[in-house]
Backbone:
């Protein structure tokens, strides 16, 4: 399984913020250190369906922070990364931290 826990945005030629890079790891319990482009992640998911999820740190109070599995990440129109089941043509990983 591949887990995405951070995204990097850039401004496109139309002035819109778009995902350009993602941080990922194969380990749920560690912060991601691997970086890839959005296109590389799209290619990976297309070749390996149902293999990519988000993850996030959850504050468990006195127990501290713990990594938690998020949602499945899927590709729409070979151009967008989404975590929900609709086909809106827009990335929707805004809830992940930026780097």
Residues:
């Amino acid at each position: 399984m591949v887990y995405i826990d951070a995204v990097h945005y850039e401004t496109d030629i139309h002035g819109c913020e778009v995902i350009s890079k993602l941080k990922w790891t194969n380990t749920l319990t560690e912060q991601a250190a691997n970086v890839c482009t959005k296109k590389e992640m799209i290619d990976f998911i297309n070749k390996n369906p149902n293999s990519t999820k988000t993850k996030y740190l959850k504050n468990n109070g006195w127990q501290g922070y713990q990594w938690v599995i998020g949602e499945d990440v899927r590709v729409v129109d070979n151009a967008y990364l989404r975590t929900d089941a609709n086909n809106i043509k827009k990335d929707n990983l805004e809830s992940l931290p930026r780097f």
Remarks:
- The CA atoms of residues 12 and 28 lie 31 Å apart.
- The mean pLDDT is 94.
